[in-house]
Write a structure and sequence with these properties.
The chain is an alpha/beta fold and 273 residues long. It has a domain of 176 residues: Sortase (Sortase, Chain: A, Beta Barrel). 15% of the residues lie in helices and 28% in strands. The chain has an eight-stranded mixed beta barrel. A two-stranded parallel ribbon has the order 1-9.
Length: 273
């Protein structure tokens, strides 16, 4: 008489399947975090920086790294700006040759902002404390960042404003600010609100820069210009997309007063009811 062994089937209980699924999810999460952490660390340590160069004073040596830009500006308590003039501080005098501020624009916030209607972009504008990468990255958590390269909005020279195009969660809420920067077309307007004045620039085009070959952006220009800088292609730091613009006009900003009647129902007297 022959005996045949019946193969035993291996059955996973519901608890075993849950444990196995948990291990798979944990492994995927650990791999993702490792990849992102490695990418962020690699960018922090090895990614080439691209920063503007302040215009050299007359008679100064050509050493670009040794240039200093003088005393810091008055500090403001406004959360959107690190160096806008404090209340009661005099606004800088208008330089010769700049467009006259003919209009007055009502606004609900006199802080420093950058507004690009074509991209529906409306973000606070901070100024980094220095040209050091740590200060620039810290300021990017507040909004878009203006380099302290010695060129004020509206002045002759290149105002440089940087922002993330993409980024990991630890880069803050503005890490996708310039996600669509390449969609800007010549003629699109870029509004820079600074110290109670709106400077309207008109985009003239964009270009790609390899920071490994050209790590500096000159701030020298014979008329007021603007450069928006962001990493490109998306999710990389291989290139820098630079959007160039020229000053079109300026306007004074004044605070819009909100009437109480806009938020309250009118009360009618009995005689008029």
């Amino acid at each position: 008489m022959e005996l045949h062994e019946t193969p035993q089937r291996f059955h996973l209980t519901r608890r075993d399947r849950r444990v196995a699924l948990g291990f798979v999810i944990a492994a995927c999460a650990a791999g993702t975090l490792t990849f992102l952490a490695g990418s962020g660390l690699r960018e922090l340590l090895f990614a080439p920086r691209y920063r503007p160069v302040p215009p050299a004073p007359a008679g100064s040596p050509p050493n670009r790294e040794a240039i200093r830009w003088g005393a810091p500006e008055p500090q403001s308590t406004h959360p959107n700006s690190w160096n806008s003039p404090a209340p009661g501080h005099a606004r800088p005098a208008r330089q010769a040759g700049l467009p006259e501020a003919r209009d007055v624009i009502l606004t609900e916030d006199l802080g420093n902002w950058i507004r690009i209607p074509a991209l529906s972009l409306n973000y606070p504008l901070a100024t980094a404390r220095s040209m050091e990468s740590a200060d620039i990255l810290r300021a990017l958590h507040i909004g878009l960042v203006r380099y302290p390269n010695g060129v004020e909005p509206g002045a002759a020279g290149v105002v440089a404003i940087a922002g993330h195009s993409t980024g990991e969660p630890w880069k803050g809420r503005y890490r996708f600010a310039f996600l669509h920067a390449r969609k800007l077309q010549p003629g699109d307007l870029i509004h820079v609100d600074n110290a109670g004045t709106r400077y309207t620039y008109r985009a003239t085009g964009h270009r790609m820069v390899n920071p490994a070959k050209s790590p500096f952006l000159s701030s020298v220009a014979d008329r007021p210009k603007l450069a928006l800088l962001t990493c490109w292609p998306l999710w990389t730091t291989q290139r820098r997309l630079v959007v160039d613009a020229e000053l079109l006009e300026t306007a004074l900003l004044t605070l819009r007063k909100v009437s109480a009647s806009a938020h309250e129902m009118p009360i009618h007297s009995e005689q008029g009811a």
